[in-house]
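#lab-general

N.A. 3:47 PM
ok so I finally got the sequence cleaned up, no stray characters, all 267 residues accounted for. can someone with queue access submit it? mine expired

B.Y. 3:52 PM
send it over

N.A. 3:53 PM
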Amino acid sequence: MPDERAARGGGRVLETSAQGGLSCSVIPCPKRGAPYQKHPAGGRPGAARAAAPLFRAGEWFRRLLWLALIFLPVGAGAHPHVFVATGLRLVAEEGRITGVEVAWQYDALYSLLVLEEMNLDQDYDGVLNEDELARLEGFDMNWIEGFEGDLYLTQGGAPLTLGPPEPRGTAFEAGQIVTRHFRAVEAAEAGPVVVRAYDPTFYTAYDLELGIEAPEGCSVVVDEVDFDATKRALLKELAEIPEDGAVPFPEVGAKFADRVEVTCDAP
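B.Y. 4:20 PM
back already:
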């Protein structure tokens, strides 16, 4: 049953590889375009979702079996990705959701990779001066066309349009990069709005560890995904695919995203 609470945490680590420092052994790394772009839908700059690569069913099953392993506890061999603790601060007006401020706290190893690539913190004291913070500002705001910001809002089952990101600051705290940006919500009406933060390709894993804030008069209900049940259902679905079938590599990020429902009182 859904319950009212800020979402759970659960940090994991990121392994490095020869391609841009990110592990690419299960889900392919996005090809690099401009530095520090957030990858678009489909996981590759400029790639349309319809152009997702085809895999034999057996290969699909093997890859998803590996994907399932990342949901085991860290000590049991979690598979690496980029992990982002997320915070949401909702803005409302006359019972309507009008915007959301998003906080992204990148995991420590990915933060280190960014600092190394940008030649920041060269004295390795774990502190960025004002000039270094200014250079870091906006490093993750150079979004490729088609990238949705890994944030999805719906009302009555229909998607709500979000405006472009407006940077709200960057910090480096306890070895982790934290950035904030604001997205305006267009044409929402009074009534419940569902918010979900996820990467469709699951290249980046988001949780709601930084919590959810809403204005006075708004209620927040978090329906936390059942990871184990979702994983079992996905593997059962894969097992029913004929071995000689050819299918597109699935976008499974939404299946593992918590559901946040926000309802604000109308005046």
